[in-house]
Amino acid sequence: MAQEVRGVIAPGKDEPVRIETIVVPDPGPGEAVVSIQACGVCHTDLHYKQGGISDDYPFLLGHEAAGVVESVGAGVTDVAPGDFVILNWRAVCGKCRACLRGRPWYCFDTHNAEQKMTLASTGQELSPALGIGAFAEKTLVAAGQCTKVDPGVSAQVAGLLGCGVMAGIGAAINTGNVGRGDTVAVIGCGGVGDAAIAGAHLAGAAKVIAVDIDDRKLETARSMGATHTVNSRGTDPVEAVRELTGGFGADVVIEAVGRPETYRQAFYARDLAGTVVLVGVPTPEMKLELPLLDVFGRGGSLKSSWYGDCLPSRDFPMLVDLHLQGRLDLDKFVTETIGLDEVEKAFERMHTGDVLRSVVVL
Ligand SMILES: [Zn+2]
Ligand SMILES: [Zn+2]
Fold it and tell me: Which domains does the chain have, with CATH numbers?
């Protein structure tokens, strides 16, 4: 039987979010209903509310979530009721050209639940953020969006691996391929940048240089594993990174802002034949200008990182295990826990910059 639960809806462009009763259908073939325990508040949720992603209002917000599988539809064998799972927004298809060539982290045909959740009051179909919609007591997803992990981890920490923290760690260890002894610079020390720092530290980087314009963020970056910090408000970050790397530049520079000016900094702060990883998300009007001769002459690779190029089934359980063993402290990413009715306030706090992640606990 379909169930009625509470969920946080963005009703229209720039309108405040509000709690509504939503209808969650029983899972159909290949689907699962998950009882949500925690869900982080991400910038992407704010972008949905502001109309920056699409106009398919009303949105059911929330996508960095962990919970327990309540029921599964026909044909679902990978997860079962009672499993503790992290939700992912790239359930791989196994059939597209990327999957068939053994590179499922690039899957070009990721999928979500077929059935729609609806508003109880009007019957209107909801658009779940990133195909998840987890600021809700329960949500309906494709079973492939559920990744089973060790239930010993707290839900508030686990949920963050579903998006921002995975994007940052993956930018370092998957896309950037950071290895022992590498020098790494990370430009932009919000949640994703800090996760990239933690990832570079985990991978054995010899030097991890954090670059930001906010001293408080640089302080946090140190606690995540940065060995050096540069405040680029008063210092040229390219010069500073070169100085800290014997005059050469870093092996891997991770751009976690997503702006042309910070991308140029990343491009020139890297050593010859080094790697730039773009994980910050630009907006449609941004353009990049670089001398093509420099692109050629400096060699190396310029990469983009989708969701940290993660493979949820491979990466989520591994990172949870490292966290439980004390080798990757994910607790530091949770600044505060809040209730379902405080999402609007959490959006406001994002602008002040004192919050790495607010996490809704249900
Ligand atoms: Zn997110
Ligand atoms: Zn695929």
Answer: 3-162+329-361 (3.90.180.10), 168-306 (3.40.50.720)
